[in-house]
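Service request form, structural biology core

Requester: graduate student, group of Dr. S.
Request type: structure prediction, single chain
Budget code: on file
Notes: please return the result as structure tokens.

Sequence provided:
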Amino acid sequence: MTPAGEVTRLHTFCEEIDGAGPNSVTEASDGFLYGTCREDGPNGDSLGAGTLWRASYSGRVKLLHVLKQFPEPAEPNGVLQAADGFLYGTSNGGGSGNEGTIFRANRSGKIKVLHAFDVKGLNDPETNFFLAEDGFFYGTTAKDGIPYEDPEREGTIYRADQKGRVDVLHTFSVQDGLTPVAPPVRDAKTGDLYATAIRGGDNFDGTTIKIRQKKSQRN
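Core staff response, request fulfilled:
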């Protein structure tokens, strides 16, 4: 789209060719665009569980990988490129517990699961994380938290490194919100995090919160 609002269609996705529900695009250092489709993709006689693809600025798309559920990621939320040149992302499903993953991919489409979310702690990342100035990824999960099975808690803010080690920074409660969906943002000067939740709070219609980084809990 031009600054004046003139739109040119570059590519139309097809579930049986390169996936359906494109939900991210990021510019990589090689001059190509990389992104994911949350659903489908060719998988023999059936459809896959999402795709990773590369596109030129003219809209020519190359399918790099079709996700296939357990133990791979499934329903990817997007990718971004880190300083090491790899693409990193989260998925809403797949992994050893089928509760979502953090994964890494090279630009040829080879995928490695770095962390599998599980039902006994934190799971169900609805959106991708972001890469902060301190070199860590920050994201949210929509369900569970620490302590596990506390009915007053649902959803977390977490920090992850490039090896897939995850620290829980905050578990939401009814008072400060429930079910965070969007990733948090981080103040680079103070390290404070800002986040939203779609439920909870005084009127149970959602909240915006600020938290200071404190001692974390490893998941």
